[in-house]
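Ligand: S-adenosylmethionine. Inputs:
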Amino acid sequence: MEKTQKSFLKWPGGKGRIIDKLLPHFPEDCQFIEPFVGAGNVFINVSAKSYILADSNQDLINTYSWLKDDLVALYNATKELFNTENDFYDIRNQFNQPKFRWSLKLAAQFIYLNRHGFNGICRYNKNGQFNVPKGNHKNIYFPEAELVNFNGKLLFSDTTLLHCDFTKTIELAAAGSVVYCDPPYLTKHRDSFVGYTPSGFCYSDTELLAHCLHDAVSRGAIAIVSNCDNSSTRDIFHRFQIHEIDAPRSVAANGNRKPAREIIAVLTPDMI
Ligand SMILES: C[S@@+](CC[C@H](N)C(=O)[O-])C[C@H]1O[C@@H](n2cnc3c(N)ncnc32)[C@H](O)[C@@H]1O
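Predicted complex:
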């Protein structure tokens, strides 16, 4: 098996660790649509005819756009931030100021904050301010090879980047599309919120996701979803074929290193 490619971003819940379990579900030669692209750990490892990568995190899509359009400029701006004696909170403060969020400076700062912040967590408060504290790493890795590799894939493939909500992205799916969804996971408690975006992701969002995917499959697409394995996700994805897997944990907040039970839920046109 080929070596798993890594993203230049650290991302809790990134799918690098289970890529070998996911890939067998993806047919080649499809249009690959990722409405929750995150750090792109799946995109960088999957082979398809074309790609649509979307996320509701504008800072993330801004970073991908700069990486696609001008690797050298982004590389230099980011390297300079890593090489200069900077105060993490000063950079975080600068990052939270601009209202216009499509700039090279913000893209470089986003990578800096991702690598220097606590555990690569990406979290915003209700006012949209990035509020992750400084991490306690001794040696900060500058992801040079990963940036170059990711740029190559963005540049030499037919890839569209979108900043939008999953509902809009899934509307683009039709026969020949595979929609892979890795949303913020639904915990056992019906309405618990998870990070990534100021608005969070709750039970009704996950229900809406299942509904949008069902519509996409009725238009001929294939839908594949990752989530945790519990009674809520079993309920919501009851029309899907469920594959259970053990996934290594990336953030073991309580020291729990036991693999977590997850599902890969698959819905194909012949099932509806
Ligand atoms: C678990 S991460 C995806 C990680 C990715 N599969 C990887 O391996 O790198 C979930 C992503 O969903 C995005 N997200 C959260 N709510 C969203 C929404 N309503 N629409 C689109 N994206 C959303 C977050 O910004 C985050 O990047």
